Amino acid sequence: MRLKVQSGAVSLDIELRDTPTAKALLAALPFESTAQTWGEEVYFSTPVSAKLEPDAQQTVEPGTACFWTQGEAIALPYGRTPISTDARSRLAAPCNLIGRVLGDCKVLAKVKSGAKIKVSAG
After folding, report:
1. What is the CA radius of gyration of the chain?
2. What single DSSP character describes residue 39?
3. What's the predicted TM-score (pTM) here?
4. In what helix (H) or strand (E) does residue 25 lie, and over which residues does it extend?
5. What are the φ and ψ backbone dihedral angles of 6, each rounded to 5 degrees?
């Protein structure tokens, strides 16, 4: 199960885990959104609402695809956020772990706040 995320010249695939949130995102495809940035993280709203899953985490490795339940958004950290205490990404709140960015997640640095995001099946 994969998602394809595109914004301008940036295109990346996310390998999804087998979780209720990931399945809900797949069922909602395709959709468009608007990118927001927070430190070295790109996040964007989705048409999906989900409950916090038992393995939700707030501190993750860069490239971990997350779902922020409070904002109904996919969060794609590629480095430090304003509240990181080490090289890992510290999210605004615990988030569901939905998968992993395939390839170099640092390409997300090219996505600017306000950019259009397209999400489709990968």
Report:
1. 13
2. S
3. 0.97
4. helix 20-28
5. -130, 140
End-to-end CA distance of the chain: 8
The candidate with the shortest Cα–Cα distance to 41, out of 71, 6, 76, 82, is 76
Element (H, E) at 68: strand 64-68
Contacts of 87 (CB under 8 A, 6+ apart): 62, 79, 80
- Say which residues have a Cβ less than 8 Å from residue 85's Cβ, sequence separation at least 6: none
Amino acid identity at 121: A
pLDDT in tens, the chain (122 residues): 999 999 999 999 999 999 999 999 999 999 999 999 999 999 999 999 999 999 999 999 999 999 999 999 999 999 999 999 999 999 999 999 999 999 999 999 999 999 999 999 98
Is the preceding peptide bond at 30 cis, omega within 30 degrees of 0?
Answer: yes
| CB half-sphere exposure, 87, CA atoms < 13 A | 1
